[in-house]
Amino acid sequence: MFSAAMWGLVAGSSLVIGALLGIYKDIPNKVSAFIMAFGTGVLIGAATFELLSDAVRDGGILYPSIGFLIGATLFIVAELIISKKGGQDRKRSKENPSSHSGLAIFIGTIMDAIPESVIIGVSLLKSQSVSWVIVIAIFISNFPEGLSSSIGFKKDGYKKGKILFLWFVVMILSSVSALLGYAIIDPASTLVITTIGAFAAGGIFAMVSSTMLPEAFEEGGPIVGYVSALGLLTALILTYFD
């Protein structure tokens, strides 16, 4: 249980790191775009090589397919709602995000962080050792979220201390979610575990397709395709040694 909480904390810590940089440093857009592109590749690899492959192997094709579609659908529905509230750029790294609502960004981040962290706990249930590829993928994807959202919070008039406090709250929620994923879910329930894994994979694919990759290409140009490929290869290598 302690390991689940610790790795959830590690994965969520990049939100705070991104927030600190967003508050105190100016990150060039191209650098942020390359980070997002690499994170996109790693996330796609994690969803494919870890979550989906394991779900189909252990649970067949039906329930993982349903879980995948539900995850993608719920993320897109949530994304539409959050976008209307002003949180559409929460995973983007622009130095001047357009008219943010701080609360919408915060809620949207929690919606991303909780299911991602639950998967960390689930991965510990399955093998009693953490999935490095999932932790690294979540860590990388959280960085631009903390970075861009903190810039948005500043534009909304939030004080630096309050911004950092909010991200520390999300980081703690990530830790608690990983702990709950480990403590509550029955390790013998293959159907539940595989469906949750596929659900997370669907959400990840929908998220990177609609938020991270378009922004990375917009800011970094065609080279981000190669950087994303390197991220995917990294995920494959991590999975091989996992």
UniProtKB/TrEMBL annotation:
Source organism superkingdom: Bacteria
Keywords for this protein: Cell membrane, Membrane, Transmembrane, Transmembrane helix, Zinc
Membrane topology: Multi-pass membrane protein
Subcellular location: Cell membrane
GO MF annotations in UniProt: zinc ion transmembrane transporter activity
GO cellular component, one term: plasma membrane
Membrane spanning residue stretches: 6-24, 31-49, 61-82, 103-124, 130-151, 163-185, 191-211, 223-241
Family under the similarity heading: Belongs to the ZIP transporter (TC 2.A.5) family.
Protein name: Membrane protein
Natural source organism: Halalkalibacter okhensis
The organism's taxonomic lineage, starting at the top: Bacteria, Bacillati, Bacillota, Bacilli, Bacillales
